[in-house]
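Holo prediction. Input below; ligand is D-MYO-inositol-1-phosphate.
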Amino acid sequence: MKNEEWKMIEKHAKAWTLEAAELLKASFENTLTITYKSHIADLVTNMDKAIEKFFIEKIQEMFPDHRVIGEEGYGDDIKDKAGIIWIIDPIDGTTNFIHQQSNFAISIGIYENGKGKIGLIYDVGGENLYFAKDGEGAFLNDYELPRLDKASLSEAVIGVNATWVGPNKRINHENVQEIVRKSRGTRSYGSAAIELAYVASGKLDAYMTMRLSPWDFAAGLILLNEVGGIATKTDGKPIQLLEQNSILAAKPGLHEELLGYLIK
Ligand code: IPD
Ligand code: CA
Ligand code: CA
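Structure of the complex:
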């Protein structure tokens, strides 16, 4: 795909995201229809569905040969990484969207043959657009994000959800407790996309979680890559784009230090 074509994709992806954000803000005036997916904490609203459909219609009209993976299932059934794939979370942080009307994001990662090309995370309430393009850097609105410096745990603020600090079936919680104790502090924002954008922009030094889907991390990985952040699974192995993964995203140095606690 030529540079000119990527510029076109970028232009549309940004414009559609801002348009979708307006639809989300306007929806605050209306009553949401809320339903459960797998369990009572797994919520979906009419707006999650509407925003996903909005993007899919636009993409199909403008780029008919591109494919889409969307959380709500209106996209394509994709088993391989060939061609251009948009990986979309129409609302990341649905619980925040419902309870707080803040700290939720539209997250879009665009990949070509499995390589991250464009990453876009729009924090709708904060009106902050995190954007990255392969080889051209990462930006927070008009500000180019600097490359991340090395960090160490004793001076680090770590994004981690309380779920992983108590007994759970995915990770030895005592290892996580040790990280919490030795860090400068921990935070949890309830939107994986925003937390990955925070690592890319240096607001968090690391973010770790035990199970994310492609739409939660697709855009964040592209942002991190542009600023020299490191992202792997929590066992240090490579993240698989089309699967659920644990995620450890961190500044250089700190990533290795954290792996030392997680792999024992
Ligand atoms: C969720 C959020 C949350 C993370 C969950 C995700 P959703 O996405 O990113 O922070 O802990 O694992 O499923 O359901 O709000 O799009
Ligand atoms: Ca999500
Ligand atoms: Ca979602």
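The CA atoms of residues 151 and 163 lie 25 Å apart. That is the main takeaway for now.
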